[in-house]
Amino acid sequence: MEDNVYLIAAYAVFWILTFVLVLSIWVRQRRLERMIAALQAQLEVDVREAD
Amino acid sequence: MGNRVRDRLGVLLVGLSGIAMLAALGMVFLYAPREVTMGDVQRIFYFHVASAWVGFFAFFVTFLGGIGYLVRGERRWDVLALSSVEIGLTFITMTVVTGSLWARPVWGTYWTWEPRLMISAVQLLVYLAYSMLRAAIESPEHRARFAAVYGVVAFVTVPFSWFAIRWWRTIHPDIMTGGGGMAITPRMVHTLLVSLGAFTLLYATLLRQRVRLERAGDKLIYLRDAHDQYPH
């Protein structure tokens, strides 16, 4: 029974680390997409003003 | 149209790797037999070996990315190498932690200074240094060139880790020779093969997303440069 604690802990470590990696990629992707959208909107304004 | 096709590929990869991971997990707990000497704790072995495989493979891709960058000088090779290191580091961390959790009931200790474990710890530090040193170099060209050389040289830790259990006296089990006191049955081999396949699919999915993240970062830099060219 005590050995099962190590088994459960090992599989929990796997899922937690995978979740952290996926979450970290997703959060950074979302932040970049927001910044890209804001810059693209600003660039459209720049182009209009330059014309 | 192109984006839509790429997104479909992304969804397909996520779906396939999810199904494969669930299948591997099902086989680990429902199909693979209980090992006679170690008992249920031996079931750690399937995800432990598969994590190590992905870690090694990820560092091999970084090695290839480094060579690609040194030969061609193209940013895409640097993106591939950098993206793969991050995934490799995560999976080698999993390997070390799950290995320690297996070692506690089997060896009576979480850690012992034997060759395979020592090389794994050194490998983890070497690739952590890769990420930290990259971040410390400002010039993109110098950063990419340095990282390419470092990624090629650092790969030496992979064959060292792989062969450590054959070159030196060690208590670490060797699944290729059956050494280390583990009785491998055909069902265990099937489970391990499915786990290896599932983890490889998961790696491909994660790598694709990580590369897309790096490309989005490049696009942001390009847009900032374009924005700065307009008078404000």
Description of the structure:
The complex is a heterodimer of chains A (51) and B (232). With 51 residues, chain A is mainly α. Chain A has a domain at 21-51. Chain A is built from 1 helix and no strands. Chain A is rod-shaped, with a radius of gyration of 22 Å. Chain B is mainly alpha-helical. Chain B is 79% helix and 0% strand. Chain B is built from 7 helices and no strands. In chain B, helix 1 (2-31) packs antiparallel against helix 7 (186-228) and helix 2 (44-72) packs parallel to helix 7 (186-228). The relative contact order of chain B is 0.17. The chains are: A mainly alpha (51), B mainly alpha (232). The A-B interface holds A 2-4, 6-7, 9-11, 13-14, 17-18, 20-22, 25, 28-29, 32-33, 35-36, 39-40, 42-43, 46-47, 49-50 and B 25, 39-41, 43-44, 47-48, 51, 86-87, 90, 93-94, 97-98, 101-102, 104-105, 202, 206, 209-210, 212-213, 216-217, 219-220, 223-224, 226-227, 230.
Features:
heterodimer; A: 51 residues; mainly alpha; 1 helix; rod-shaped; B: 232 residues; Four Helix Bundle (Hemerythrin (Met), subunit A)
Please render the helix and strand layout as text.
The complex is a heterodimer of chains A (about 50) and B (about 230).
Chain A: H1 2-50
Chain B: H1 2-31, H2 44-72, H3 75-107, H4 115-136, H5 140-154, H6 157-167, H7 186-228
Helix pairs in contact in B: 1-7, 2-3, 2-5, 2-7, 3-4, 3-5, 3-7, 4-5, 4-6
Quick recap of the structure?
The complex is a heterodimer of chains A (51) and B (232). Chain A is built from one helix and no strands.
| Overall residue-averaged pLDDT value of chain B | 91
The biggest beta sheet of chain A reads: none
Main sheet of chain B, how many strands, which sense, barrel?
A: none
Oligomer: heterodimer
Question: Which blocks of ≥5 consecutive residues of chain B have pLDDT under 50?
Answer: none
The total count of strands of chain A amounts to 0
Low-pLDDT sequence parts of chain A:
none
- The chain-level mean pLDDT of chain A equals 91
Number of strands of chain B: 0
As a percent range, the share of strand residues of chain B is under 5%
